[in-house]
Design goal:
Layout lengths: L19 H5 L2 E11 L3 E13 L5 E9 L5 E11 L2 E6 L2 E10 L2 E8 L4 E8 L5 E10 L2 E12 L6
Antiparallel strand pairs: 1-2, 1-10, 2-3, 3-4, 4-5, 5-6, 6-7, 7-8, 8-9, 9-10
């Protein structure tokens, strides 16, 4: 079962006022944590991301995801605000649209993976704005089949 963080994950276009969690994903980030799959156990995962705001105002996050026992894979998110705190967009390994909302320092996303499970993901910025917690729950037929718990941190950008 393919899983990520960072979403990761994630991206979204800033409003005119922007938010701290939106700014967090612009630039380089990395995440580390664990995946727990029902009946299969727990294994580690890492991701490396680089986010940017594209010409249409969407947050685009390009990631490399490394799960223990699996080959590394690329993952791309594109999220945009659709009004107020609503978010919509795409993710390369999701089927259909990603939907979500921003609430204070948290981002809550919902989507369905191409390989089947439905995902709910919560990314919450921690005090200081340099780290965020990521929690993902994967469900099949309404039953929880896997979880991801990870920590995402913003990396320092090199200055010229």
């Amino acid at each position: 079962m393919s899983l990520i963080v960072t979403l990761a994950l994630l991206l979204f276009a800033p409003s005119t006022t922007g938010s701290a969690i939106e700014s967090f994903f612009v630039g380089a980030t990395e995440g580390a944590g664990h995946v727990h799959v029902l009946l299969s156990g727990r294994h580690s995962m890492r991701d490396h991301g680089r986010g940017r705001i594209d010409g249409e105002g969407a947050l685009v996050l390009d990631q490399i995801v490394e799960e223990q026992g699996k080959p590394a894979r690329r993952r791309t998110w594109r999220l945009v605000r659709t009004g107020g705190n609503r978010i919509t967009g795409t993710i390369s390994d999701a089927r259909g649209m990603v939907a979500g909302e921003l609430t204070g320092t948290s981002l809550h996303l919902r989507y369905k993976m191409k390989e089947g499970p439905s995902v709910e993901q919560w990314i919450t910025l921690r005090p200081g704005g340099r780290t965020a917690s990521n929690r993902m729950i994967f469900r099949r037929f309404g039953l929880k089949v896997a979880t991801v718990e990870s920590e995402i941190r913003k990396l320092e950008e090199a200055r010229d």
